[in-house]
What we know:
By secondary structure, this protein is of the alpha/beta class. It has helices at residues 3-11, 56-64, 86-89, 102-106, 118-121, 130-135, 166-179, 183-202, 234-241, 259-265, 285-294, 302-305, 322-337, and strands at residues 33-37, 40-44, 51-54, 71-75, 94-96, 112-115, 140-142, 212-218, 226-228, 245-246, 256-257, 269-274, 309-313.
Amino acid sequence: MNVLKSLLTLSGLFAVIGLAASPSLADPTRYPLTIENCGTQVTIEKPPKRAVGLGQNSAEILLLLGLQDRMVGTAFWPSKVMPQLAEMNAKVKLLTVEFPTFESILVEDPDFVAAALPVLLGPNSKVAKRGDFDKVGVPTYLSPSTCLDTKNAKDVYGSRSQLWSMDQLYQEIDELSRIFDVADHGQALIADFKAREAALRSNVPKDARKLSYVFWFSSPSPSADAYLGGKNGASGFIADLLGGTNAIASESEWPTLGWEGIIAANPDVIVVANLDRNRWELDRLEAKIKFLTTDAAVSQMPAVKNNAMVVMDGQAMNPTVRTLYGAEQVAGQLKTLGLLK
C-alpha cells in the first residue's frame, strides 16, 4: 500500500467538539477586570467588541468561545482553521496567514488583542511589543503556555524546563472567557477537554512498552537541520499522555537537529506534521514522506522501515487547543499499526 495514502487515511479529520452537557453556571464578569498575564498586569474595562486573534491558537480559542461577532481580524495561521470552526471563521477578516504589520492591526480599530506566541507580542516580537499597544490604549493578552525564558534559549521561542500540561491551556480558556464575560462557555470547553484527556490516559495499559517519539515539524531543505518538537513542549506532553517519551532531550521549544542526530536518537515512532502553510517545500506532507522513505540514510531508520510513521496536524505541536486533537490522531493511528492497545 502506498505509504502516503495510508497515512492520510489514518489521519482523518478532527472530531466535532462535544461540549459537556449542563455545565454549572459561572458568575458574570465584574469590570474592571485585572489579570496578571505573563508578568504584566492587564486591566479590561468592559467586554471587548473588536478583538484581534493574533496567532492561530488565540483565534481558535475565541471562535470556540463563540466570539466571532466580536472579532475584527486574525493573523498567523500555519494550518487551516479547524473544520468545525470554518463557518464562524469565515465571518472574521483574515489580515494575513503570516506575520501582520502593527499598522494593519491598528487600522481595524481593535479594543483587545490576544496573541499566541511571543514572536507576535513579546519583547522581540516581529509585529509589536505590548508597550506599543499600551500606548494606543489597547489591552493585550499573551498565551500563558508560551511565556518562556528567552534569555538563555537558543531560539526566539524560548526554553521550557518543565513538561507543559493542559492546565496552562485551561487557564488561558478560563481567563479569555472571563475577559469576554462568557465564562459558561469557557467552563464547558474546559470540561470537554478534561474528559478527553482523561480518556486518553486511561486507555494506555500500565504495562505497555514506552515508545519513544520524534515530532518533525518541518525543514528548510533536505540537507538542513530539522525543526523538532522539544522535550517539554506540546510534543513531549503528547508522548507522555500516550505513555511514551520524547526522544529529543533538548529543553528548547523548537530545537533544530541534523538527521544524523535524529538517526542516533533512534525513535520508535516518527510523528510527521501536516501543514497548510507553504513557506518551505518540506512543509508539505507529501515531501516529508518522500524524504523519509527515499533518503539513503534516513530510510534505513527502524521507524521508517517498520512504517512506524504517523501524521499529525502541525499546529498540535504547539501548546494549543489543537494539542489534544493531535494526541487523539496519533493514538488512533498507533492502534491501527498495533503499537498501542
